[in-house]
Amino acid sequence: MSIAITIDHGAIADNIRALRARAAGAQVMGVVKADAYGHGLIEAGRAAREGGAAWLGTAQPTEALALREAGDEGRILTWLYGPDGPFDRLIPAGIDLSVGSLKVLEAIAAAARATGEAPRLHVFVDTGLGREGCPIDLLPALLDRAKELQDAGTVSVVGMWSHLAWADRPGHPTIDRQAAVFATALDMAAERALTLEVRHLANSAATLTRPDLHFDLVRPGIAMYGCPPVEDPDGALWGLRPAMAVTTRLALVKPVHAGQGVSYGHEYTTDRETVLGLVPVGYADGVFRSCGGGRAEVAVRGSRYPIAGRVCMDQFVIDLGPDTEATEGDEVILFGPDGPTAQEWAAAAGTIDYEILCRFGGLRPKGEA
């Protein structure tokens, strides 16, 4: 494969430090789900710890177990499973578990009895996202049963949490509405004498823009990898820097005459004598076909060039202009610190930077730093 995906683990550690400064008074959980958004689960987890992350978070329990197997001894929370989750492995590993339904709670309790250990539970409340978590109307029954199991020594309820739907739109009315529902849920826990070690609601965007919602713990994901989820009013990207760069090298540089059609369908035609550069990656390598036609840019020798014509399966073309000094073998930056951003590529592809990172990061050979 001609494409290269490189990860700056120092940037991840520095981003965690910047987020810790923003969340003074609250601990930070580095969210490393989905192979750390394509940045490498184990390596990104280590970088987050180096930056001071007190917690790591994974959606999939297999990733939480992989962190333990790699030697991580800190707090880890995992949350995406049904009643058939691998609780018999998670509990002995000391991994904190999320619970959002009675059925999952009973499954965890059964595994706890079998292992003879009381797992640490975080009650997941659906405050309005409509995805994971227990609806507020069903929460009293879930809390009552959790309290019974805690009193019996079967489980230990240590946390309550939820997730925001519109935090990347500061000022959106759903944020305050969800915060109010979360406050009600916390009151319900207090009424049952459930003493919570950690209350957590803030994702990346709320970590940066809503200090009133930091509580005991914040859970930055995309920001940890240097992609701001909201615009920085100071224009300084919140002190974050991108950790992923995607590059390749020019395979061919050649002069052409005016009127030369470029790539399938000749959707681009040169309007002067110029020099074309062949970039040896395409949609088989993760480049969105929709980024053709000048919608996405790449950087060569410090200058940017739009994609000329269609993106093909394993290549696309850029018009370098008549006076270029570019030559075969020059580095081409699709996105990264010295070129376009993942956000710019997302805009060109009609998606979000989360998908850009996961799409290209997924091309990395597993275990490659």
UniProtKB/TrEMBL annotation:
InterPro entries: Ala_racemase, Ala_racemase/Decarboxylase_C, Ala_racemase_C, Ala_racemase_N, Ala_racemase_pyridoxalP-BS, PLP-binding_barrel
The UniProt record lists the keyword Hydrolase: no
EC number: 5.1.1.1
Keyword ATP-binding among UniProt keywords: no
Keywords: Isomerase, Pyridoxal phosphate
Pathway(s): Amino-acid biosynthesis; D-alanine biosynthesis; D-alanine from L-alanine: step 1/1
UniProt-listed CDD domains: PLPDE_III_AR (cd00430)
Active site: 33 (proton acceptor), 264 (proton acceptor)
Highest taxon above the source species: Bacteria
Domain Alanine racemase C-terminal: start-end pairs: 243-367
SMART domains found in the cross-reference section: Ala_racemase_C (SM01005)
Residue positions binding substrate: 131, 313
Residue numbers of N6-(pyridoxal phosphate)lysine PTMs: 33
EC top class, as a word: isomerase
GO molecular function terms noted in the UniProt entry: alanine racemase activity
Catalyzed reactions: L-alanine = D-alanine
Needed co-factor(s): pyridoxal 5'-phosphate
Gene3D superfamilies: Alanine racemase, Lyase, Ornithine Decarboxylase, Chain A, domain 1
Family, per entry: Belongs to the alanine racemase family.
HAMAP family: Ala_racemase
Function text: Catalyzes the interconversion of L-alanine and D-alanine. May also act on other amino acids.
Protein name per the record: Alanine racemase
